[in-house]
Amino acid sequence: MKLEAMLDQSGVEYEKHLHGTTYTAQGLAAEEHVSGYMVAKPVIVMHRNDPIMCVIPAPKRVDLNRVADVLGVPEVYLATESDMAELFPDCELGAEPPIGSLFGMRTVMDRGLIEDEYLIMQAGTHRDAIKVRRSDWERLSDPLVGEITR
Q1: pTM, whole model, 2 decimals?
Q2: Which fold has domain 2-146?
Q3: Where are the domains of the chain?
Q4: Sign of the CA dihedral 26, 22, 15, 52?
Q5: 94: exposed, middle or buried (C-beta count within 10 Å: 0-12, 13-18, 19+)?
Q6: DSSP code of residue 60
């Protein structure tokens, strides 16, 4: 898988977990027996035709106005399902790993994830998860950090 190859090539230590099929980030938290605030959920927004990956804690919702403010642009909008299928052809829809650089896009991280030592994320399928140090995730993602949730 593309994610594991990136982690291996970057020398990042990680744990791979297999869990029951789950279709939501909160469901992943339940399967992993962790707080939803440790689960990094990607939300893809578009500015013009450019995709931007927002990474937020599972229980939160992205605030499009706040994302636009952090990016310094007039507006952003949510990517469509067809956008998602095109952007992540190797992933099951809704199981995209939250590492924008893996897919050639900028990453914006919600400030709420800064306190976590580890992050858990989907790894491209609804059954695979990766646990990684947040500091390693930040090194790979090089995110812009801001208050982007409500």
Answers
A1: 0.95
A2: YbaK protein (3.90.960)
A3: 2-146
A4: negative
A5: middle
A6: -
